[in-house]
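User: Here's a chain of 312 residues. Predict its fold as tokens.
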Amino acid sequence: MLPYLARRLVSALPIVAILAIATFIFLRLSGDPTAELAGENATAERIEALRRSLGLDRSVATQFGLWLGHLLQGDLGTSLITRQPVAAMISERLEATLSLALTTTVTSVLLAVPLGVLAARFKGGLLDRAITLFCVGGFSMPTFVAGYLLVWLFSIRLGWLPAQGYISMLVDPAEWLLHLVAPTLAMSTVFIVLIARITRASVIEVLGQDFVRTARALGATEVRVFTLYALRNAAVPIVTIIAVGIGIVLTGVVVTETVFNLPGIGRLTIEAVLARDYPVIQAVILLFSLTYVVINLAIDVAYAALDPRIRS
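Assistant: Prediction complete.
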């Protein structure tokens, strides 16, 4: 396992390097933010002085070298707007995003896998059709639409849930969970659909194998057939779609945090883009990209654990 993991880690290094270079270059190609930062009535001398103070008057290669040098030392730079360290800004927003990602992932897996297994167990029946209808409807609904509907129903009409905001788990665990219910449900919709559909298809495929028919012929109960044989052998595609879904969750936090006014990294990204805050945008994009790389590595490790033949 360790040699396999080492090979996967080495192969991921060029991807990280390409992501860092692409992030830096594409942001520089988007334009010079100094005129906007200086204000509408700023003179040309003021704009040029600001450009020099920010180091934007240097060549792109020089700027990249300086940024990379600071990055290797753990310095993500300083915000052009707030003049705060970018690492501190991200750490302040990290709890809300991680909380939302965690509750969404756990909720989706706990609901989707049983739904997929039930749909496979009653293939072609009323329950299977109901789950399929739910999946079609859930996949067709954008996250922001689901979010606004949840706010209207549970916050405005019923008054059961807070409409916006976030309370730290360290301050009040009950309020923390209450504020995450609606955002979690909004983000879980597509994730549940993906996992349920893949689980259904994978379990149905496994149930058609000879060893399952043999197990049933030897008197294995349906619970044992589905838990020990079907789910275990259908685990690889299910694990894959769960990992892919985590990536979708990371993408969805940008919209969800904006709808529910959560002070997370997704909302920080929107604020930085609108203000053209280069250091913050670079750091956030790089963070999301590295997270995708880590997720892919986790998928490879899970593959190797589930199927030892992959390690060779």
